[in-house]
Structure formats: structure tokens, C-alpha cells
Fold this sequence. Notes:
Elements: H1 8-11, E1 14-16, H2 25-40, E2 48-51, H3 53-63, H4 66-75, H5 78-91, H6 96-107, E3 115-122, E4 137-142, H7 144-156, H8 161-170, E5 179-185, E6 191-196, E7 207-213, E8 222-228, E9 234-239, H9 247-264, E10 268-275, E11 278-286, E12 305-307, H10 321-334, E13 346-349, E14 352-356, H11 357-366, H12 393-414, H13 418-438, H14 442-468, H15 475-486, H16 488-494, H17 510-519, H18 525-532, H19 559-585, H20 590-632, H21 643-650, H22 660-671, E15 679-681, H23 686-691, E16 699-700, E17 713-715, E18 717-720, E19 723-730, E20 745-748, H24 756-759, E21 764-767, H25 775-783, E22 787-789, H26 794-797, E23 803-807, E24 812-817, H27 822-828
Parallel strand pairs: 15-16, 19-20, 20-21, 21-22
Antiparallel strand pairs: 1-2, 2-5, 3-4, 3-5, 6-7, 6-10, 7-8, 8-9, 10-11, 12-14, 12-15, 13-14, 17-24, 18-22, 19-23, 23-24
Helix pairs in contact: 4-5, 5-7, 5-8, 10-14, 11-12, 12-14, 13-14, 13-20, 14-20, 15-16, 15-20, 16-19, 17-18, 17-19
Amino acid sequence: MAETWETDWERELVLPLADPDAADAARVGAKGAALARTAIAGLRVPAGFHVTEKAYRRYVDEAGIGGEILTAVADLGPDEAERAIGELFAKHEPGTELSGAIRWAYSDLGDREHEVAVRASGAEEIAGLAFGGRYLARLGVRGDTALLAAVREVWASLWTAQAILYRERAGIRHEDAAMAIVVQSMLEPSAAGTLFTVAPMSEAAGHMLVNASRDEAGRHEAEQIVVDRSSGKVAARRTSGATVLSARDAAELARVGLRVEELFERPMMVRWARHEGVPWVLQATPVSSLGDTEVWNDSIAGDDVWSNGATGEIAADVMTPCTWSLARLMLQASAPATSVPGFRTFGVVGGRLYQNLSVRAAIARAFGRSSPPSALYDRLPGEDEAEPAPLPRRAVLRAVGPVAARSAARGAANRRRVKEFLARARDRSDTLRRRAADAPTERDLIRLWHDEILPHLKTCGEMEEAAGGQRSGSLSAVHPAVAAAVGEEDANLLLTGVAAPDGTPSATLGPIVGLARYARGIIGRDTYRQRWGHRGPEEFELATPRPAEDPEWPGPVSDEARAAVTLLRSRERQRREAWWRLRERHPGQAARISRRVAKFSRVTYQREAVRSETVRAMWAVRQFVLRAGELTGCGDDLFFLPIDEILAVLDGDRRPLERVAVRRRTYERYRSLPPYPTLIKGRFDPFAWAADPDRRTDVYEGPEPAAQEDGGTLPGFAGSAGVVEGPVRVLAHAEDGDHLRDGEVIVAMVTNIGWSPLFTRASAVITDVGAPLSHMVVAARELGIPAVVGTGDATARLRTGDIVRVDGTRGTVEVLERRVTEPERATAR
């Protein structure tokens, strides 16, 4: 029947699904081309047609909106651009020829109300970039009018805030962005899911991985099945309820997967549905071939619970191998009881730093505590949900006990050394950085590492342990006692103003207060660069340049720096008034409370100062790697080697360099994915998760399709006290802060010291990731703005423009009003 609607000009705009010309990804996008090849090969694929990329470009040209789209992207923030461009697509109907071609193709599928799915097929996917879930799909579309509306909505999803930011990060020009669409008949499946022809978590060549659910959306009983490739037999099965696929069904599906893999000559991810007793292919996507990447994923070792609630602020992104090797070294020095081989509570999940709550719980249980020795004293997000790992108590005590005892004794002794360390650390790190830069030979650089840089790093780690382990002076220990005497509001005021005895501000606010002092001529530019040029949003990643490496830094002083001083002066006045009220109403308690507050201030100041000096020491390590790259001619390749392999290369062994290309690909592959959930339960495959359009961003629970919370309240952890109502501003990076308007509520995945200047314009701060000791909590408390941390999924559930009530005292966020999009307004009308 296709001949009834196809003409030469129509074939430029619309193609039958299995047309030989549709095997061209440049014409119909990667997803569409893969489906065309699959259908041409004779596998079962639902009937449908392609709306080509040329159709998209023709629509944009006929509507005259191409220039407006690019102007919106250039001049507006990603969220505003998404809204403005969405309105353009909603406003302009396709021309007569284009709409007619789509209507004729649709009529060839069935009756006037034939139900179809409308899915994006982006050109970017040709390069193997992980665009899964960034574009819109419309399911259950009936009628040609609804179809044309759905096509425009899917086209508009090419310009969502997430897609805009992703293209910029991936180096794709917005001018080149275009989108094809696949329209297919909807099935009524008895089961649906995904099949990986090579189990992606272990990349074991002998197995396939099947995710199956009772419906295509994955909202009913689900299971995960491992199938032997050679025999088709079920090797393992994990289910959340009744069995979805029988062993025979799984074997039949595996055979389909092998046919798809043979067709494309590489490992594949197949989205499938079982309809009328047989499997159908809904989508086929390549998986990176074996051997061209590594697996940086400790979650595949067992069914443990992982959290980045406390680590996400430290390392907010995927780490290079060099950085991860340094992180292990620093953790061993600063938290030795959590770094015992076989009982480590830290690891990488998809290249990101996570904490193993199951091992942590097992260690705590062995010692009869709620938290393991030398761990953070504050509870971590998800800790109450973590079952202890099955580790024998005797083995835990034998391995961890002596380490914990030595750590406790060393911590007590080292607390007396913190003040002396802080007095010398800056000069020591700066000296080591200069000596690394000037090392004349490879042998000199090796000697400098072993004799001076490594011992200094270990000292920094020991000081982190000492400064962070003063529980009696922590906020959780001091705040209740102070609040009991003076009330919640005054307690929050008295516990601000963290500073050294000489008035030096906390390292948390040091960069922004210092910038204001520089602007007023109190300190010079060189002094500011020396004191704070090591701090920045990506300060933990060794491959990232430090701000002071830019000769133009700092540039013009922002208004935020001056605003910070104004806020802090206001806070100081409020604090003096609180002290006056205390002495007036409770004269007998004033001295005792003053001692508790002074201890809290000293402990907090030291903890933040030691953290800052550790970051400065890491700058010396970065210079060591840069100089090693110069001396060996390897350049920045060395950031893709752990420290011990860098030392081997310096010593003349070139073999580690053979893995650099593979690790670069691995790093970029993980970096292409969106941030993972805060809480991960069980074995986690980040690529399968990212490809799932219905993925959750707060928690991953294996194949069980736990529903995303849609209620009006987001629970988190109390950060900085106070209650504020205001509009939301979702920010992906601190660099996007120029889109923040005064009085808006910042919503971010995670914040660190690089975000501090933005806090002066915000009315409150909300994060997905964070714990009570996070930088954001300290900064927000000092500036007097409410903060809620560790919500898990605020960036997914809130949108710029939503109105919320932030209760930093209780740790909750209440949605008062949702932003209404243009399509929603049109529906309401």
C-alpha cells in the first residue's frame, strides 16, 4: 500500500519503516536506521514510518524559526530557552505538503484512530553519545491531528534544557542539531523490557542480560534474568514478584538478540515487547564493543547499598584514574578503619565516588555501634535502609579492630597538631608545587614524590581525620544544648560567625570575603591569588586546572562578593543581639554556652581550614603530574594512569601507556551519562539506567519498578534553619549562575565552594546530594539562608519557575505551585 502515498518529494520527508533508503542514519537518525535494518533483515518490528531529518529542517525553514531558536539558546538560560523554543513549536503548524505526507503515511497503518508511538531518532546518537532519555517520546497517540501535535512536541524536545547543555558538553554545534522521528504501531504486550547481548555490568562474553516487565513502561512485576549465550538457559533470575518470562520465552528472546548482534556485528541493547506470543524488536542500540572500555563499577560485586550522600560534594563528577588513585590514598590516611582491604566502605560506581553502606553497617554492627569507627558521625542518606553485608563478625573485628584502635589513638594525638599544621601547610604545599614544576629530571621528580609530596599528603589525611573527628564540638552535639537554653532561632544565630581567634573567616567563605576585601583594596591581587587560587567547583579532580592557573584570574569583582559582606555584617548584628538576649535572660548559663559555642567555632573552623589545605596539597600533586607529562612527553595522558603507574612511566616503563586510549574512552563514556541516583541498591548498570526514559534519579532498586514520588513534599536533611517561599531556579553548574535572579531558590544536584557566590542572591538552597557536614550547610548557615540537603531527586521533580516552601529546620521542601508549560495551557484551554 506504500505506493498509494509515496512520491519523490514525499520520500524526502517520509519513508516507510523498512525502506532500504531508511538504513541511512544521516537521513533518519541512528534509532530509525537501526530499526530499518532490523526490519529489512526479517525480524519482527512493529509497522511504521520515518519522518526524516530533512522534514524537521523543512518545518523550521517554513515556520521561519531557525534564527529565533539559535538566538534563544545564545541569549537565554537553558530553562528559559527550552520554554521559549517550546512556544515556537507550539505556535507553528507544519505546512500543507509536510503535514499531508505524514497524514498519508499514518493512514497506511490502519484506521483513523490507529494507536501509534512517536519517538525521537537523533543524529547525535550516530556518534554513540548517551542521549537516551533526553528526547521526548509520545505513546498512545490516536488520530492524525494528535499525531501532528506529537511530532511537533518531539521535535521541540531537541531543545530541552538538558539536551542543550548536553550538546554543549559533548562539543556538538547547535546549528547542526536536527531530529528524525519514528512513528510505529502500538502493541499490546504481555511483557516488555530490554536485552543486552553482552551483560554490560561485567562485560562477560558468555552471558546476556534481560530486564523484563509486565508492560512496556515497566510499572508492574519486573525481573532481571541472566541468560547463557551458547545454550540459551537461564543462569540467574532476580524478580520482584511473579515470573514474567518462562525459561522458554527467555531462550527465544536470546535467539532474537543473537540475530540482532549478528546483523550489526557488535554487542547490542534491544528494547523488546512480547506480543501475541512472540518477541518483537522496538529498538536496537549498539553497546560499546568488548575491550575498548574498562569497567569502573564496584557495585557489580554484590547486592550492597551505595550512597553518594556524603561523597557527592567531594567528587561531584566522574574521576580520572589519577584522581581515584589519590582519593584511595587520602581515604586510607584520613579514614583508615574504612579502608581495610576486604572491608572498604568506599568505591566507584560508574566512575563516581560512592560509599558502601552495607559494609559500613556490617562494621558498625560488629563493633556494636550505629556508625563504624573513624566514619563521619552524621547519619548518611539511605543508611537506615542498608542491610549489613554478610561479613563474619570475628573477621571484621580481627581486620578492622587494630586499625580502628590505632586510628583513635593517633587522632587524639593529632588534634594537638592541627593548629601547627595550619600555620605551615600553605607554605609547604606552595613550595612542593614550585619544586615539582622545576624538577629537572624524571629521577628528581620520583624522589620528590616519595620523600616529600607523599608524606605531606599523608599528613593532610591525618589532619583531616583529627579535625573531623572532634564529635563533642560538632553541630549535632552542640546545637541541642544551646537550643534548649535559648530557643531554636537564637541558637542558629549564636552558632554562626565561625572564624579563627584572630578573626580570619572560615575557609568556606574565605574566597568570597577575600574577593570583597580585594575589591576594596584591603589585600592585593597577588595575595588573593595565593590564598584562594586553589579553590573551585572541580577542585578534587586533578585533571582540572585551578583558578590561579589562569593569569587573568580573578576577573572583575562580582556584586555577589560585596553582597556577601553585607549579609555577614547583618548576621553579625543579629548574633550580637542574640548574645545580649542570652546574658539578659539567662545570666547563669551565658558562660557555659559561650564555651560550647567557642568550641564549636574552633572545631568547625579547623575542619574547613584543613579541608582547604588538603585541596591546596592536591594542587601540588596536579603539578607533579603535569611535570611528569612534560619530562616523559606524555602530556595529559598521565591523568589516565594511577599514581603508581605514573611513577613507573617516570622510571622508564612505557607499558602503562598502552591503556591510556581505553581509559580515555571509558572516562568519556561514563561522563556522557547523567548523574546517577543518590542511593543505589544492588548491581547497577549506569548505561541501561541512562537509556531508560522512566529512570528514577533518587534511588535505584534493580529491576523492581519503584514509582517516582509525585507528591507535593520532598523530604531531605535539615541543613540551615529557616523557612522561605520562593520561585525555583534549577542549575546544572555553578557557571550557570548568571541565570539566577535575586530571591530565587537554588536547586542543584550538589554544591561546593564554587557555588558560594551564588548563595548571596538566593533565598534558599536545595540539593539532591549532601550530608549535614557539607560545605553548603556551613555556607548557608553563615549567610543566614535556609538549606535542605540530600533530597535525592529535587532536580528531577522541580522545574525552574515552580513555587516552593523551603523549611531548613525540618529538612522539607513543599511544592506550592507548579510552573505551567505552554502545552499544559493549551490543554487547559
